[in-house]
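S.,

Sequence below, as promised.
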Amino acid sequence: MQVKAAAGPAVAEPRARPHPRTPRAPAPWWRSRRTKGLAYAAPTAAFVAIFFLLPLLLVGRMSLSDWPLLTGDRGVNTPENYTDATDSTLFWPAVRFTLLYTVIVTVVLLGLALLLALLVQESRPAAGFFRTVYFLPGALGLASASLLFWGLYSPTTGPLSRILEKLGLVDDPVSFLGTPTSALLSTVFLVVWKFAGFYMLILLVGLQRIPHEVYEAARTDGASRAQIFRRITLPLLRPSIALTLLLCVTGSLLAFDQFFILTKGGPDNSTVTVVQLIYREAFQRLNLGTAAALSIIVLAVLLLLNALQFRGLRRADES
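The prediction came back faster than expected:
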């Protein structure tokens, strides 16, 4: 009879020690992430420096110097350029007209753009067609659109005046640009026609980002359309409205093409904008110093207005 030996406690085999990893050699500086990031940003930085910062510094230098267009820098004459710019007989009328034009265009354009965006936000059979139709004028350049409307507004060769005469609404040819009020309203109509579709597209994107569940919950609670628009749509659409407001105000304050082509500042200098005043000083009076001073003033006003808009938007978001 064989007796089996009692099995003793199992002895754990010694584990193999992990082989120490050799430290990686640091990547060359030209392959580091920081270098790659700088390389990607370098073209944009060079573009901004060449086409924005350097011209801005040059304009600042011009605004402090006697700088005729044909002869060049004649030395520092601070602050004569700024006093000459503000003492001009056209300066304050141009400022008032530019502000009036900005207010009218901003109110009409944003109101119409929001209405169009609300009309085409639903997925209806003809929604895509109307979106394209509304946006189509935005594909046309502002100078081209101004020339088009200049032909339409012409009392001798334009079709609008003839159509009104054939309908019996007027007896004589209509001069759409003949009076200060008609010139302003005709230009506002052009700008609204051209940019309403573009701003509609911005607001439409903002509307489509609002979750449908929010609207369904509001309808379940018995909210009316007016309450949904006031309590849900407008608050959630605030970033898009802020963007359109910023673009519209900035573009209106810098208005030039439409008035230069349609009215040439007339009649009787009643439609001269601030940018037209800069053009006159630089290329008609050949005084780059005063034109640069006006440019610096306009830039300072734009920066102030943009800062106030961003501050107001931030406070509205925090409340």
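The first helix runs from residue 33 to 63.

Coffee later?
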